C-alpha cells in the first residue's frame, strides 16, 4: 500500500523566522552522548518531565539515526542498551521528545509514524515503495512563506513541512526491471 504524507505544519516557527539556522546547521547527530543527555535533561526539566535512562537511550538513538525510524525500530535498537525497556515506554518516550521539541513525528495517512531527531530546518524525501525517508537540506524563507500564505483568508503560517515522494534509487531500479510504477500525484 502506498503511504501518502499527511499535510502537516510541524516545523518550529523558529525555523522560518529571520536568523533561522541554515540547512548546514549542526544537527543533533554531531553532539556527544554526554552533551545529548545534558540537552535532554535541561529540556525535560523545563517541560516538567523527569530525565530517565530509558528516555535518554531513545533520544540518543533517534538523534543518531539517519533512517527516521518507527517506534518498533527504535525499540529493537534501544533494548540492546536497555534490556528491560518496553515498547510502551518507547512510544511514551518518543511522544515526550516530540512534545518537548527534541524530535519531530512524521505521520502518514495509513496511521504509521516515523521519528526525526533533527530539529534544524530541512526537508524529506519519502520512497512510496519501501517507505524509506531521508533528509534533504533546505528551508523556505519567511518571504516565501508569506507569498504562499497570500489569499488564504487571514491564515497565518507559523511553520511548514515539505516532503517529496517518489522512488528511491533501489526501488527505481526494481521498477525499471519489473515495469513502470508511477508515483501517486
Reconstruct the topology from this structure.
Layout: H1 33-47, H2 53-64, H3 71-78, H4 87-99, E1 104-107, E2 113-116, E3 122-127, E4 133-137, H5 142-149, E5 163-166, H6 169-178
Parallel strand pairs: 3-5
Antiparallel strand pairs: 1-2, 3-4
Helix pairs in contact: 1-2, 2-3, 2-4, 3-4
Provide a descriptive summary of the structure in words.
By secondary structure, the chain is of the alpha+beta class. The chain folds into two domains: 91 residues, Ferric-uptake regulator, C-terminal dimerisarion domain (Dna Ligase, domain 1, 2-Layer Sandwich); 94 residues, Arc Repressor Mutant, subunit A (Orthogonal Bundle), CATH 1.10.10.10. The strands form two sheets. Strands 4-3-5 form a three-stranded mixed β-sheet, with no helix packed on it. It has a two-stranded antiparallel ribbon with strand order 1-2. Helix 2 crosses helix 4 and helix 3 crosses helix 4. The chain is globular, with a radius of gyration of 18 Å. The relative contact order is 0.19.
Q: Major sheet, described briefly?
A: 3 strands, mixed
Number of strands: 5
Strand order of the largest sheet: 4-3-5
- The CATH superfamily of the largest domain is Winged helix-like DNA-binding domain superfamily/Winged helix DNA-binding domain
State the helicity in percent bands. Answer: 25-40%
**What is the mean pLDDT?**
79
The CATH architecture of the largest domain comes to Orthogonal Bundle
Gross geometry: globular
CA-atom Rg in angstroms = 18 Å
How many helix segments?
6
CATH class of the largest domain: Mainly Alpha
- What's the end-to-end separation, in Å? 15 Å
As for the number of domains, it is: 2
CATH third-tier fold name of the largest domain: Arc Repressor Mutant, subunit A
